[in-house]
Amino acid sequence: MSPFELLERDGLARIGRLDTPHGPIETPALLPVAHPDPARQPIPPVEMRRRFGVHAVITSAYITWRTPPLRAVAEERGIHGLLQFDGPVMTDSGAFQQHAYGAVEIGPEESLRFQDRVGSDIATVLDVFTEPDATHEEAAEALRETRSRSEAARRSRAGLLAVPVQGGAFEDLRAESAAAASALGDVLAVGGVVPLLEQYRFPELARALAAARPGLSPAAPVHLFGAGHPMTFASAALWGVDLFDSSAYHKFARRGGLLFPEGTVSIDDLREPVCRCALCAVRPLTDVARLPEADRERAIAEHNLLMSVEEIGRVRQAIRDGTLWELAERRSVAHPALRAGLEETLRHPGPFLATEPASRPSFREILPESRRRPAVVRFRNALDRFARERPLSDTIGRVALRPEYLGRIPCEDRSGRPLAWDAETPLGPVPLELSDLYPVGPFLGLEEFAHRARHRPPSSVTDELRGRPALDADLDRDWTDGWTRRQILALLTWEYGPDVANELARDLVGVRSRTSGRLRRIRRQDATLFHVGTDGLARPTFRGAGDVRAALSEDRGRVVVMDDAREFVAQGRSLFARFVAAADPALRPGSSALLVDRSDELLGVGRLVLAPHEMRRMGRGVAARVVAHARAPDAAEDADPEE
Questions:
Q1: How would residue 452 be classed by pLDDT, with cut points 50, 70 and 90?
Q2: DSSP letters along 163-194, please?
Q3: Which of 20, 295, 599, 615 has its CA 20 to 30 A from that of 438?
Q4: What is the pTM of this model?
Q5: Which residue segments constitute the domains of the chain, with CATH numbers given?
Q6: Phi, psi of 355 (to 5 degrees)
């Protein structure tokens, strides 16, 4: 069973748990480099844990091996005894030293045997470091050797193994390496990128991740070697990077460099106490600058480590809040190279779409590039499909889907011909009846404040329509009921297609919130069949799911539950990945799915945590959380439709 479990997510980014012999690692996590020689380590690992909340570190097995006094202690007391650290320890193999010095004295077999002997929690294959400027032939040869070494390492090691993903600057080799590493590794370590990070070649890093990401197994955490500057964490996490490591906190301290999420500042240039973190509130950086050299280096390293740990915490919180894209965009303005990396990321939406959530609580515009996020790409793609059978539409200013607005917009002309209306939105024209959907409904951007009010007054809507000479419709009639029926049909079409929507929508009525006027429930007689959330999506109750199941073909909208978990799901327990027999590949994380047994009996309605392709590969963790089930009526289905 995989040692990795996905707990929460925001697209590719994940809150996860990696189990190791010395305890779990919550991801995304920073593994600071701990030098095996205590005399060269400014912050003892035990202090990293006690003072800074660091739960895992990485150290160099190669430096330990080649230094006889360190090697003796490690072989006698283990790598944890050498570092005096009781948490998880990952060991690097010497590939970085190979990059830095051109060669290492140890072979891949001895490297792995040594890591085993000293009790590494996560051992790393000694791969062939591929320089970014290597030719395709050189990169391919290095990749063949790395793969051979990885296969041998897997055969000989029972414990956790980090398998590097190489391939240089070549998309085909990165993809090949990702697939091969996924078949072997417990941790998938994207390597050969330190020069890109050091030289701020972030667009090239984005291309390397775009090539590797589709082939990386979702069942293993992804490690990005050398990513230790806090300004890079958010953008890397977008690609699903779970583990970061670097000695940046110390390397920058040696030359007086202060790390911040917004970039690097030289301590010698400071004249003001610009930081008020827990450390700097006690001793301002302007005072640190005047300390003796050794004390100054340690104090700066502590500051840098604290900044890095805090930024990892912000990344985790952003994943939980569904705001990681916003955080990454804010960080990208710190440096033009980061902005260029974000621009390159947006040129590769494909790897994101399979795990892009059905909705998020909000959509806040940070940059002009915000309108090209994968959420918008997916929405526009779905809108194209929705609009294929829709009549030609006219455009109206963005208005709320509330009775006092909708009542003034005609649904048909005087001859009975349906009229279609597109609302002007910051993300382009959107059918009026769909303009509450994420990302349009919760969109908050510059135009909301700088150019026009978000909702036009009712009188201006009528005035605008009366000014259209080609419009022959009854503008004095209240059209609210017609728009409610049209919105119901549109939302069901969005989820299930026009044929199923037409069948489901018969005799349905909508209930709007008394406070906001938004559609909140869809009912038939005395039964609520769908709730409409703040994301605008119509989500089925258990009764509604029964109607959906009858209308949909058996390969759509479903997650099939194995017999062993049938009763648990029917009682409202979460569905775990190992009990999924099949799933509709069109479903996405956050989607509402029909949970059925092998005979297609409805057991419950689930909110997906994993994408269907992940369910097949994850050995553990929740695939779907049950929100309605067969053993109990739908909770609060008759509650007042308030926000």
A1: low
A2: EEE--TT-HHHHHHHHHHHHTT-SEEEE-S-H
A3: 615
A4: 0.94
A5: 4-351 (3.20.20.105), 370-493 (no CATH)
A6: -115, 5
